[in-house]
Amino acid sequence: MLPQDDFLPINGTDYVEFYVGNAKQAAHYYQTAFGFQPLAYAGLETGLKDRTSYVLRQDKITFVFTTSLIPDSPVADHCRLHGDGVKVVALGVDDARRSFEETTKRGALAYMQPSVVADEEGQVVMSGIHIYGETVHVFIERRNYRGIFLPGFVKWEPHYRPAPVGLRYVDHIVGNVDWGQMDKWAGFYHDVMGFNQLISFDDNDISTEYTALMSKVMASSNLYIKYPLNEPAHGKKKSQIEEYLDFYKGAGVQHVAMETRDILTTVATLKDRGVEFLRVPDAYYDTLIQRVGSIEETIGPLRELGILVDRDEDGYLLQIFTKPVEDRPTVFYEIIQRKGARSFGKGNFRALFESIELEQGKRGTL
Ligand code: FE2
What we know:
The chain has about 375 residues and is of the alpha+beta class. About 25% of the residues lie in helices and about 35% in strands. It is built from ten helices and 17 strands. The protein has helices at about 25-30, 75-80, 95-105, 180-190, 240-250, 265-270, 285, 290, 300-305, 350-365; strands at about 10-20, 35-40, 50-60, 60-70, 85-90, 110-120, 120-130, 135-140, 155, 165-175, 195-200, 215-220, 225-230, 250-260, 310, 315-320, 330-340. The model has no long low-confidence stretch (mean pLDDT about 95).
């Protein structure tokens, strides 16, 4: 793609903001379990009347947890309908005004008109557009800002600081969309955001006896941003995507994949701290090398931790998925280490889905 064709250059994921029922406790969980470090805070003490936000960071991953302080607000409404979930996927850009103009003129619905927020540390230009469900992209232009996070936030410095676990950056963010809506949203990312489709697979590839889905992966032209989009497909019983849509009450972010350079250490630490992972049947490991060829890791520790392996034409990847991190079976995390591979672990879908169906069976939602 020629540079002049990239009408929406994106520098990376700036932050992911969750609307939650109790931001104080969510922040504690992400510190304790996932090793995120306290960064910034905004709330009653900083002059806000209706909400509180905690900002946590691990290497290049920034999460914001926001809760409502009043019964009627967009944050409270979001939590009532969806439970805890992702509201904002913020994207770093050099020009937030142009990002807004280029996307809205191509059909994006405005969420936030371009606006300047400033304090003594400089200024940030922000704008935003709606995506699937009630989720939004906010464009953040922060080249003229030196502050800790955004204007209005103060440094958050609690004494409680569990160590990081080696998570480095957001590898990809997956959206679940409603029946028949995948092509619409893939088209949105292509037409409105200038993304291209990476790979595709149909429900024949990723159906098990019971559950099924279809998926397309859209990526920014510099490949910094990768968004797989899932829609449910018909199986004998309820698709895991349909289960998500039922509990989230519509489309939304299904999982955030976070990269590590050492998945064995990261996952062992996460387990010690109480993070629960999906587990594939042990037989998966008996035939692993036959399926993926030789790998640098020994099978024993992978089997013990339940880490999955997949190979594509560029190399291989190691990955594992947490169980949902809230009571509704909605948002979860993927931990991924890439050794050349640029795909998303399609070869693991069958084993994984059978494991998810075991969990769905326990929930009575198959
Ligand atoms: Fe993923």
